Amino acid sequence: MQGTMHTRPTAGLEAPTIPSELESPRAKLVYLFLSTYGEATISELESSLEMKKISLYSILSTLCERGLIDQDAERYRLC
Question: Which residues contact 37 (CB under 8 A, 6 or more apart)?
């Protein structure tokens, strides 16, 4: 398996705010994951969230188009 998540969320942090324009539960889940872990590859998202890559590509594309996340090479992070 390639690229395992090693970072853990820090206790005591406030709950992240989800942008109101996100209606899809899966998009919210991806957004919350990135807000918690900071960044992730598509493979890390796939294994951690148990979602298919085809769904993730669509969600990530939409989040990028809306200016909510950035892609740097193979890693995604919040703007």
Answer: 5, 7, 9
Contact between 30 and 37 under an 8 Å Cβ cutoff? The reply is: no
Burial (CB < 10 A; 0-12, 13-18, 19+), residue 45, is buried
DSSP-derived secondary structure for 35-48 = HHHSEEEHHHHHHH
Indicate the average pLDDT of the chain. 88
Determine the Cα–Cα distance for residues 57 and 78; give it in Å rounded to an integer. Answer: 16
Q: Is the distance from CB of 79 to CB of 70 less than 8 angstroms? A: yes
pTM, entire model: 0.80
